[in-house]
Amino acid sequence: MNSFNNIYNAFSAAAIKFGNNTAIVYLGTHFSYNRTLRLADNFAYSLRDEGVQEGDRVIMYIPNSVQWIIAWLGIQRAGAEAVPITPIYTAHDLQYIANDSGAKYVICSDANYGYIKQAFTETGLKKAIVTKLSDLLPWWKRLFGWAFDKVPKGKISKDKTTLSFKKMVYAPNRHSQLPPIKKDETDTAEILYTGGTTKFPKGVPISHGLYLESALEQITICDPLFPGSENIVIGSVPLFHILGQTTALSVLLVGGSIVLMPKVNLDAIFDSVQRFKAKTLIGVPTLYRMILEHDRIDLYDLSSLEYCFNGGDVLPVEISERWRKKFHKPIYQGYGATETCGGVSMCPTDEDSPPKSIGKIVPSKKIKIVDPKTLTPVPLNKPGELLVHSKRMVKEYWNKPEETAEAFVKMDGVQYYRTADVVSMDEAGHMYFIDRTVDTIKHKGYRVSSSEIESVLQEHTAVIGACVVGLPDPKVGERIKAFVVLKEDVKGITGYELIKWCREKLVSYKIPQYIEFRDMLPKSKVGKLLRREIRSEEKRRAET
């Protein structure tokens, strides 16, 4: 499927083939394949000119935008490695990832430049490359955005450590002076940080070959519906997330177009579908529920949508049925993880899938469904932990040997990733998600670490113990609830104060929605926190 040895060469080939076709639509402005490639080349040259070396890591701390894609491609052309992170991270998160990854450069928007300056003194960051979200738009759109306060603004210092993204991409066209790309399919293209059971996010190194294999596999799943070059994808899913990269950004490898959304706005999504006749929508269950419940949905023509894909969490049957009844088309499901570079299973588009199925295993992946304790295979239709292998698979976490030893296992001489998810498979090869075996909360499509939130709560001077669990919720997957034990001599601390404390330390999707105070928390004989007992107690409470 993939004849290219690195991401840049694959996109460059698409640009040669589809040159004047629209690659990106950003805030109504069209960017052709040729223009996108030229700006990425210029950025690559400017990076090397500023001292970026082969293998250096560059943090991408910007929202979905044409700048994101140009920067990502430019980093690949420069021979460096991208470290995409969510733009809503605080200085605390940024500092951790900069130190863990060893990044020396960071690309940010002017709106979060302040966090960069805070992190500079505590990290090895050397330079910040700053962009305004309107930088590459026509002058009249920039003027409109400024005059009507439509574009977020931030103050930028003028010093040697701060560079202008705009000047770098509009630099004299000297990309021919760039050295040849040495990266091949086994080299790291990017490091994506993912949540899980540990206090800190874990870096997942994705190779060029793994990304191309997975991305092409997932973007071509809808070939039975329409040619890839005619695909127009609504890019509202974050590009720093593997879901957005493999199901939306990947359209640029086959000649289609991506309509970028800096943030999720339902009316903007509806308008873009209608105006550009978009064929593909990518979302998590929360998005599809919000669309169905939107009071202005019938004011728009969404009939061009042919492929709607759900990832990030299991789609409730109720949403699936309501969608099919309203639009007379299914929502196709899939299952994947950052560690597997997205899709492990996907629902085919040329056959019907059972209502609760998360699809069939994609060709590049091999799986085992095993007993979590003994790792012995379980029979068909029986639940077991899902193990995943692929030829180009991620083999370890970045700088995390203990977590690597827990998450990866060798069986019959082959390495597998332990997903910690319980699934089953029927005789026809349809896979079904059943449960999670670890203390990871799925909130709005994100994997949230219970221990990370517990650690933040326990940093508060009034807290002696904390237990965080996810409670089932049809709208967001799971709600986050914290059970807290206060020190004996502390009085007057409220749940509101602890939630405010969490807001200062955590990104928005990790903040508990509820705080309950307890005198003690259930623990095992060796002192291990028993979250399952809290979950069982909450389940019984909900059923009464």
Strand order of the largest sheet: 2-1-11-10-12-13-14-15-16
The CATH class of the domain at 441-543: Alpha Beta
* % residues in beta strands: 25-35%
How would you name the CATH homologous superfamily of the domain at 441-543? ANL, C-terminal domain
- What is the general shape? globular
Question: How would you explain this protein's 3D organization?
Answer:
The protein is an alpha/beta fold and 544 residues long. The chain has a domain at 441-543: GMP Synthetase, Chain A, domain 3. 30% of the residues lie in helices and 26% in strands. The strands form 6 sheets. The protein has a 9-stranded mixed sheet, sandwiched between helices. Helix 6 (139-147) links the parallel strand 6 (127-131) and strand 7. Helix 1 (7-18) runs antiparallel to helix 2 and helix 1 (7-18) packs across helix 3 (66-77). The relative contact order is 0.09. The mean pLDDT is 90.
Give the arrangement of secondary structure elements.
Elements: H1 7-18, E1 22-26, E2 29-32, H2 33-49, E3 57-61, H3 66-77, E4 81-84, H4 91-101, E5 105-109, H5 113-120, E6 127-131, H6 139-147, E7 162-164, H7 165-169, E8 188-194, E9 202-207, H8 208-219, E10 232-235, H9 242-247, E11 257-260, H10 266-276, E12 280-283, H11 285-292, E13 307-310, H12 317-327, E14 331-337, E15 342-346, E16 360-361, E17 365-370, E18 384-390, H13 401-407, E19 408-411, E20 414-425, E21 431-436, E22 440-443, E23 446-449, H14 450-458, E24 463-473, E25 477-486, H15 495-505, E26 514-517, H16 531-543
Parallel strand pairs: 1-11, 3-4, 3-5, 5-6, 6-7, 10-11, 10-12, 12-13, 13-14, 25-26
Antiparallel strand pairs: 1-2, 8-9, 14-15, 15-16, 17-18, 18-20, 19-20, 20-21, 22-23, 24-25
Helix pairs in contact: 1-2, 1-3, 2-3, 4-5
